[in-house]
Amino acid sequence: MSENRLIGDYPVIGIRPTIDGRRGVLKVRESLEEQTMNMAKSAAKLFEENIRYSNGEPVKVVIADTTIGRVAEAAACADKFKKCGVDITLTVTPCWCYGAETMDMDPMTIKGVWGFNGTERPGAVYLASVLATHAQKGLPAFGIYGHDVCEADDTSIPEDVKEKLLRFGRAAVACATMRGKSYLQIGSITMGIGGSIIDPAFIEEYLGMRVESVDEVEIIRRMTQGIYDEAEYQKALKWTREKCKEGFDKNPEQFRRTDEQKEQDWEFVVKMMCIIKDLMNGNKNLPAGCEEEAVGHNAIAAGFQGQRQWTDFYPNCDFPEAMLNTSFDWNGAREPYILATENDVLNGLGMLFMKLLTNRAQIFADVRTYWSPEAVKKATGYELEGVAKQSGGFIHLINSGAACLDACGKATDENGNGVMKPWYDVTDKDIDNILDATTWNYADLGYFRGGGYSSRFVTEAEMPCTMIRLNLVKGLGPVLQIAEGWTVHLPDEVTDKLWKRTDYTWPCTWFAPRTTGEGAFKTAYDVMNNWGANHGAISYGHIGADLITLCSMLRIPVAMHNVPEKDIFRPAAWNAFGMDKEGQDFRACNAYGPMYRNIR
């Protein structure tokens, strides 16, 4: 596990065991104490064993000191939770309780309620009552209720309840982890790309984060004045020379840089990576007199402008972007950073959402080209098979070397399947295999006049993945798009023919979304045709349902997705906003508004 490189503790989950407050000769409350507290302990155990913070540590859970039957005990619980740093609460009960007296009234906590499905006591009645009270008071809460009736003495958690508890927990921890952190933009707007036009109000009001900005010249200042960790730089440079294989140079021979110039570029981009890391999170080992620079910007994510002012003159940022986004560096496996190419803050934030949900490295890519079965056959003579055929084609995901190296799929699970692992499961063998599958090719001098290096690999493993895009729409606000699907393996000769039609020195991934035959997911073409921007953020696994839950917490509606309806889990109050699930989402998010907006 790694230390928390950000300022501020990770969010804590607080469990609130509520109970029927009636005492007396029949000992109603007394008879329920053990069962109620056992529910709390079971939920805490489930969270602690299955949810980890981004640094790999198990999530911290606290339980109220007593069951909560009346308002005084609710107040005592709230006082304890405040001291413990609780941002997320789960109320659990097997019985009827006094809803308005026992509920969590803090407007800034993320709330869930689990009502036990049993016949002896009306846990479902309390659940319905308290969720109605939450809705009435404008405090959205997630309702969790098992499908099947359980015995009163059953301390196990039904599988359907586990799924909802963990989805709530993962999304809430991701949501609360962002609060108080920074997005650091290094530079500004890139080549007119809308995603790099930063909107501080959105980041502040919806995510509870702040925006920090530095000009790219800060990197040159630190290089020129020696404001970096020399020991780390030398270690990084040695590792890069030993582990990072240089690939072919695509530039015409008469324009190629000399070996000496290329070596200087390697030194430049490695030093650049060290400095960007320092800008994000600080470095206590900077030289004396650099105390101001040593503290960093507390950035949980960042973006680098690059094009064109920087890349017309200096080596590009592809090496720092790719390596920071990857699950390892010269110190071995470590928590991946989030660094968006072209300072596309919206794509960087999408990467951040998925990293916090999965603890995996993320892919940044252009959503570059749709290939129909007919176009593939015409270009290569190949008939599509498998998921690519089922999806009516596939989408080419490719960008100038900014994708995490994990995306090559050369890390393997216990069965030898190519995967992208949570960073703390990445082995030394995985690292060697990933580096062996990657070359670093000299920059296309047509794109990048200042030189540099781009990572090059092809994703050969067929892996489940989820592509998302966060967009800002005037008059509407933020919306998210989600497309679950799979990476596609094509025969080598087919890959080469298609890849060579664009930049052959950039990392290449073929993606087939799961299609439904309807609307935006009729075929892969329709996904491409409905995509809201030129970039996408891609994560390993089918995590669309978790993203939908996370977005409801952030009050960001989901405009497009292919997640089965049975897996959609939003606060109970959303049901009051109409019959259609997606219309509900837009109306509820608009009604509640962002959690961190100060002026209503």
UniProtKB/TrEMBL annotation:
Q: Which family does it belong to?
A: Belongs to the L-fucose isomerase family.
Q: Which UniProt keywords apply?
A: Carbohydrate metabolism, Cytoplasm, Fucose metabolism, Isomerase, Manganese, Metal-binding
Q: Which reactions are catalysed by this chain?
A: L-fucose = L-fuculose
Q: Where is the L-fucose isomerase C-terminal domain?
A: 397-561
**Cofactor needs:** Mn(2+)
Give the principal location in a single coarse category.
cytoplasm
Enzyme class, first EC level, given as a word:
isomerase
Catalytic residues, per the record, are E342, D366
Q: Where in the cell is it found?
A: Cytoplasm
Q: Enumerate the transmembrane spans.
A: none
Q: GO cellular component annotations, sorted alphabetically?
A: cytoplasm
Q: Tell me which residues make up the L-fucose isomerase N-terminal-2 domain.
A: 181-359
Q: Its function?
A: Converts the aldose L-fucose into the corresponding ketose L-fuculose.
Q: One GO molecular function term?
A: manganese ion binding
Q: According to its UniProt record, in which pathway does this protein act?
A: Carbohydrate degradation; L-fucose degradation; L-lactaldehyde and glycerone phosphate from L-fucose: step 1/3
EC annotation from Swiss-Prot or TrEMBL: 5.3.1.25
Domain (L-fucose isomerase N-terminal-1) ranges: 11-180
Top-level taxon of origin:
Bacteria
Q: Which GO terms describe its biological process?
A: D-arabinose catabolic process; L-fucose catabolic process
What name does UniProt use for this protein? L-fucose isomerase
Entries under InterPro entries matching the protein: Fuc/Ara_isomerase_C, Fuc_iso_dom3_sf, Fuc_isomerase_C, Fucose_iso_dom1_sf, Fucose_iso_N1, Fucose_isomerase, Fucose_isomerase_dom2_sf, Fucose_isomerase_N/cen_sf
- Binding sites annotated in the UniProt record for Mn(2+): E342, D366, H535
